[in-house]
Amino acid sequence: MTQPGGKSLLIHNVRIVLENRVTAGSVSIKDGIIAGVNEGKEDTAGFDHVMDGQGAWLLPGFIDVHVHGGFGGDFMDANEESYDTITKFHASQGTTGMLATTVTASQEAIEAVFQATSAYMKKDMPYAPLLGVHLEGPFISLKWIGAQNPAFLSPPRLDWLEDWTARYPGILKLLTLAPENEGAIEAIKWLSDHQVVVACGHTDATFEVMTQAAEAGLTHAVHTYNAMRPLHHREPGTVGAVLTDDRIYAELIADGHHVHPGAIKLLASSKPEDKLILITDAISAAGRPDGLYDLGGLPVIVQDGVARLQEGNLAGSSLTMINAFRYMLENSGLSVNEISRYASANPARQLGLFESTGSIAVGKQADLVLAEPDFSKVRSTWVKGRQVFSAE
Hints:
Layout: E1 8-17, E2 22-30, E3 33-39, E4 49-52, E5 57-60, E6 62-67, E7 69-70, E8 73-74, H1 80-91, E9 95-101, H2 107-122, E10 130-136, H3 158-167, E11 172-177, H4 184-193, E12 197-200, H5 207-216, E13 220-221, H6 237-244, E14 249-253, H7 261-270, E15 276-279, E16 291-295, E17 298-303, E18 306-309, H8 321-331, H9 336-350, E19 368-371, E20 378-383, E21 386-390
Parallel strand pairs: 1-4, 1-5, 6-9, 9-10, 10-11, 11-12, 12-13, 13-14, 14-15
Antiparallel strand pairs: 1-2, 2-3, 5-19, 7-8, 16-17, 17-18, 19-20, 20-21
Helix pairs in contact: 5-6, 8-9
């Protein structure tokens, strides 16, 4: 890590992606906080470090609320070595904050993730910091099991949730469930009351059940279109509710395999600009070659970068946030500003972090990404003004 957070840094000669526009200029950082956003040239004197961006893009750091692993590590490993591996890799892809996402597993295996994440968050996290846990399963539907392990499915268990939130306060940030399951509405109300974001996913919920769930406090949908009851003109289903209910944030895996570009455009045109979130759903295979991997005890075959179970079900992805950003730019017709909002501002808003991160603004944390002019790769990543990745 090149620049300590306590020093001053000027990043100049860059295209700065602000929330509503792009400008050319420089960004100054002091003590890990953005001190100035300046259009045009700025005197480089008086800074401890000066970086010439050479016309590259300077964006707010990406926040990935749905990521299982990367570069051989899996959050279900529940150990510091794997967590360092995952967060280091995704920092190199522009991520400056992430949720450790589980799979459907035993109570003991999930509890180990809570314990490991809680311990990891108490240390000086050297790369992309963990922001908490996203519990994906086991409270989901067998019909839309996807690449989750059916052996560990369970109805919502408030006793488990009460125990985990009591022993690991503030760690559970997002929970995915099937709203049609018995006890789900009660669980949604309880979780919402305890400041946990509740998501639908791996679900056969009808439009009516989704409406009931949203009224109970559900505000999120994981990997929209995938592993959920599809849209039908006489029963709009889970997808129809996600598209039309403005209370619900919609996740999107933009890798060219999970969702057709036409469906991406439909989603983007249906949702308010602050309610779409880019995710990776990356597994341990991200950043690694094709081959055989594991996801929650299930064998996963990765071929040409696409992860599937032996039965053919898509099994997460090998996607990174910078690649999702570039795919959106090339296939959605959306602007850099709009896509940046999906990758940074919106997840920050959903997690209640937007006052401190998610956009480039004076007074916010210097969580930043310097990307190549064609978005082909990341040059540098900073977290609170500390450089956690450099391609040099």
